[in-house]
Specification:
Length: about 240
């Protein structure tokens, strides 16, 4: 919520804070300018903004999506649906979609625009979008969802339709939230190192507060957490 973020920035300025860690949301121009007006070091965690005033700690979202979709291709899937984020989101939506497209291209699989659904990152979007796709009888065997919440919502829609995960439809999520381990079946997902991101953001902020330097982007490794939500098909190339 942009208004709440603007209010928080004003509160920071009144409190004369020494530094700010901004977590998660895509940073708009107004918010970035407001943060610059605080005149204190700012570190973005899990997001970034193209201005050397700021530092950031992220993963490579494009590469992570590429890895997840390549994994599905290696399990024999060629018709892979993308439950994408917001189409104009430069932080997660755009790079994760680009990673999906690059992975399909690398495998010689044409990108089918009818299998890309832009929505958001919340449970209800995954549920509603998957419910609609199943109702339209789209032809796909696997889903790459750009957040675990979206993946979990999609799983609910699949199960309500009388289908099974992974026997009828394989699903991979993104983020590595705790809930992904407790779904049924357990959700295979691209895991972000949340704790490490927080640690590095704090370390970077303290360093910037001490030396007065600005800028610098730290990219941390991601990992694919394999659970039970993906089934290999004929033509599988992974062990």
């Amino acid at each position: 919520n942009t208004r709440l973020e603007e209010d928080a920035i004003q509160a920071f300025m009144r409190s004369q804070v020494d530094g700010i860690i901004y977590l998660g949301n895509t940073v708009g121009d107004e918010i970035a300018e407001g943060l610059k007006r605080t005149h204190v070091p700012v570190v973005f965690a899990m997001t970034q903004y193209p201005d050397k005033y700021f530092s950031s700690v992220t993963i490579d979202n494009e590469a992570a999506a590429y890895h997840a979709v390549t994994y599905l291709c290696g399990r024999g899937h060629r018709r892979i649906c993308l439950l994408a984020g917001e189409a104009d989101d430069p932080n997660s939506g755009i790079p994760r979609t680009e990673g999906y497209c690059r992975a399909l291209g690398k495998q010689g699989i044409p990108v089918d625009p009818t299998l890309i659904v832009c929505g958001g990152y919340r449970l209800e979007r995954g549920y509603e979008d998957m419910k609609r796709l199943l109702g339209e009888r789209r032809d796909f065997t696997a889903v790459f969802a750009v957040s675990d919440d979206v993946a979990i919502g999609a799983m609910r829609a699949v199960q309500e339709a009388g289908l099974r995960v992974p026997e009828d439809l394989s699903i991979v999520g993104f983020d590595g939230i705790e809930m992904a381990e407790y779904t049924f079946p357990g959700l295979t997902t691209v895991s972000q190192p949340f704790e490490k991101i927080g640690e590095e953001a704090s370390r970077l902020l303290v360093s910037r507060m001490k030396d007065g330097k600005r800028g610098g982007n730290l990219v941390l490794p991601f990992a694919l957490q394999e659970r039970e939500s993906v089934l290999g098909l004929a033509g599988e190339t992974l062990p």
